[in-house]
Here is the input.
Amino acid sequence: MTEEQRLPGGNTGGAVRIGDTVRRIPGRWTPSVHALLRHLAAVDFPGAPRALGFDEQGREVLSFLAGEVVGTARPWPAWVHSDDALRQVARWLRDLHTATAGFVPPPDAVWREGGIWRPGMVVGHNDAAPYNAVWADGRLVGFFDWDFAAPVTPEWDLAFTAFAWVPLHARHVVAAEGFTAFGDRPRRLRLFLDTYGWNGPTGQFIEIVRQRVTASADGIRRVAAAGDPAYRSLVEHGIDAALETAVDELADFPTG
Ligand SMILES: Nc1ncnc2c1ncn2[C@@H]1O[C@H](COP(=O)(O)OP(=O)(O)O)[C@@H](O)[C@H]1O
Ligand SMILES: [Mg+2]
Here is the structure.
């Protein structure tokens, strides 16, 4: 049997590699995620792993996306904060939303968080951050870790992705990741939104980001309070508190 190799990074369960495949601990949402990934394969969307079923240990099996990942590196590699990355991620997200617009999940679909599909919604990635991206030769290969995929409005997914890549997180958080060009953020946000094709005013978008991030912080605390060890660890590490700091700081975001 080919050797099993622990992959770098991961915020919850992590993953191992065997040959050209990745194995991850599944959740109750995994069958719905695999249905989504099969849809993406059927419409030839390249930027996602393929779902390959389950192995003899009951782990989900996915195709391995080859390239560079952020992993445990701090600060993050320079490509994360380039304008070019911002454009590529915005195009990837636009193409994802186009590709999932035709995917109506079955009524019994189970998602990790939320998600009753209504017309106008898409099934978003909902965690398309640098720590879930793969790069090769200066190109975005795609995003892995589809555990938070669920029906959302396109703006909701766009808000989180902008938060992660502009970046719009709290200053102390993004500084530790290697981003300190705070004055450049309004320009970078507009570049991201224009490339995606979101034409509304920046101030309106920042309010959507604040709601999206508040929902994240509330969700972490709720699941932690219900006893989930991974989420309790997030609270112990101050992740929900940092998100709240970001929401407060965004109240003063220059919107021109
Ligand atoms: N399909 C994939 N292709 C390539 N690498 C992957 C893939 N899925 C996961 N990884 C690797 O495994 C690590 C942890 O995976 P991830 O799915 O993000 O775990 P977690 O749910 O704990 O965040 C990633 O940082 C990446 O290095
Ligand atoms: Mg991850």
Q: What stands out?
A: Helices lie at 30-42, 83-101, 154-165, 171-176, 185-196, 202-225, 229-236, 239-250. The radius of gyration is 18 Å. The mean pLDDT is 95. Residues 27 and 112 are 8 Å apart (CA to CA).
